[in-house]
Amino acid sequence: MPLPKTPSRKAPDDRPAARECARVLETHHAPTYYLPVADFQASLIPVAGSSLCEWKGVARYFDVLAGAATARRAAWAYDTPTARFAALAGHVALYAGLMEAVWVGDLRVIPQPGDFYGGWVTANLDGRIKGAPGTQHW
Fold first, then answer.
1. Is the entire prediction scored with pTM above 0.70?
2. Residue ranges per structural domain of the chain
3. Segment 69-108, tens digit of pLDDT
4. Is residue 102 a contact partner of residue 94, using CB atoms and an 8 Å limit?
5. Which of 37, 45, 102, 121 is a plausible cystine mate for 109, CB 3.0–4.6 Å?
6. Strands of 1-138, DSSP E
7. Which residues of 88-126 are buried (b: 16+ CB within 10 A; e: fewer)?
8. Would you call 96 helix, strand, or coil by DSSP?
9. What is the DSSP-derived secondary structure letter of residue 80?
10. How far apart are the C-alpha atoms of 108 and 102, rounded to whole Å?
């Protein structure tokens, strides 16, 4: 079964669902989903620091506050992405491993291995995925 291009609009149970997401694929990475900020149901608190992706531009980071829980530096966004990734403007991505649970449709997400990558691994994803020890220089 192929991975859907966007997480399902219909969330099972009481899980929130995003309307239109951007799905980014990079070599040997699990897909990274960028959710519309307007659909985000937690508070995003800007934090210090940024990083530069040669393809997407400068990312800024956020703590994610939901109820009494705070996930530190658990989200990032490209406010002014490069022209090729312009669709990421107004979207935010999450490190799945720092969330209680993340879903793509009915598939629960397993965080991409490693402490740098933000890909979302699902049971129907095939192939080798970068991030585990020994895969950094693929």
1. yes
2. 22-121
3. 899 999 999 999 999 999 999 999 999 989 888 888 888 9
4. yes
5. 102
6. 22-24, 32-36, 43-53, 57-66, 69-77, 91-94, 103-104, 107-108, 110-111, 120-121
7. beebbbbbbbbbeebbbbebebbbbbbeebbbbbbeebe
8. helix
9. S
10. 6
